[in-house]
Design brief:
elongated, two-stranded antiparallel sheet, mainly alpha, single chain
Length: about 110
């Protein structure tokens, strides 16, 4: 997955805010994309060996967590306020809840940003 940083909307604010916010935005998006690539590579490697049900569930949680982060990054990338990026520069709160039905079946994934 890749995001063309040149195609993101221009940020609005003072010249100093925009310069700082562009750096913050690029770093945060790249961090999330790197985490995603690492998570998928790890899961692919782990899936090449026999897996317990608990390990398979952990894989689902890892993928769901990354997907929540990616979705957040895509939504945030549309934000044009330089001040917003500066104010939220330390926010790394991405959380998901994975619930498994008692009788088996597909899990339910709830995003809890």
């Amino acid at each position: 997955m890749a995001i063309d940083m040149n195609k993101l909307p221009a940020l609005k604010g003072t010249e100093k805010q925009v310069a700082w916010a562009e750096k913050i935005r690029a770093e945060r998006i790249e961090k999330i994309l790197t985490e995603g690539r690492n998570a998928y590579a790890m899961i692919k490697m782990l899936q090449s060996r026999p897996r317990t049900e608990a390990e398979k569930r952990l894989d689902i949680e890892r993928i769901a967590t990354y997907q929540a982060k990616f979705d957040f990054a895509m939504d945030a990338a549309k934000t044009t306020s330089a001040a917003w990026w500066i104010e939220h520069r330390g926010d790394d709160r991405y959380e998901v809840r994975v619930t498994y039905p008692a009788g088996g079946g597909a899990p339910t994934i709830t995003k809890l940003y």
